[in-house]
Model the fold of this input.
Amino acid sequence: MFKNSKINKKNKIVVCLIILILCSCGAVYLVFPQKNIEFENINKKNIVEIISNLKNVNIHNKSVSIKLDEVNTSEVIKDITKFEKFKLEFKENKLTLYIPTKVIGFIDTVNTSNFEVSEENGAISLKLIDAYLGKIKIPNSKVLKVLSDNSSEDFTVDEKNEKIYIKNKFINFTKAEVVDDKLNISCELNFNNMIGDFLKKRK
Done:
C-alpha cells in the first residue's frame, strides 16, 4: 500500500511535468510570429524630398497627387520616428506595421498592427484596427504605448482615439488612402513655411 502511494505520487508529478511542458510549448508557439518577417535596413527620407524625386507626381492647380509604395512610405516613417527596425505592408487597402520585439527578454517575436488610412485635419490618419503579439491578439493600448514611445512632432499618437497622425509643416494633406498596394496621397505644399524655414537656415 505504501509502495502504491509512492507510485501514485510519482505519476502525479510526471503528469504535472508533462502538462507544464505542453503548456510552455503551446505558449511559445503562440508568441511566435504569424509568418516569417525579414526586417531590412531602411533609409531615412523626408516626404518633401520623396515628392520632388518621384516621377509619378500629378500636379493640378495647387494640389499634388502622388502614389507611395511600401519602400517610400517606410522611408518617411523611418525619418519621423525612433524605430530602428520595422516593416510596412499594404494589403486589402490597409496598412500593416510589423515591429520586432522580445518576450521574456529572449524570445524573438513580432508586434503586428493593422490600420485604416485616411486624411484628417491636414494629416494622414492611421486608425488602429487590431494588434497581435505573435499569434496572440492583444489590447490596442499595448501597441499604442510602443508607438507613443517612438513618436515625434511629425508622428503623433492619440491613445484615446487609437489613432496615429503623420504630418509635415510643409504639407497639408487633403486625401490619403491605400489602393492597389500603394498609398495614394493628395496634398498642398506650404511654400510660405518652406521659404520661412529656408531663411531661418540662412541666418
Remarks:
- The chain has two domains: 1-31, 47-202.
- DSSP finds five helices and eleven strands in the chain.
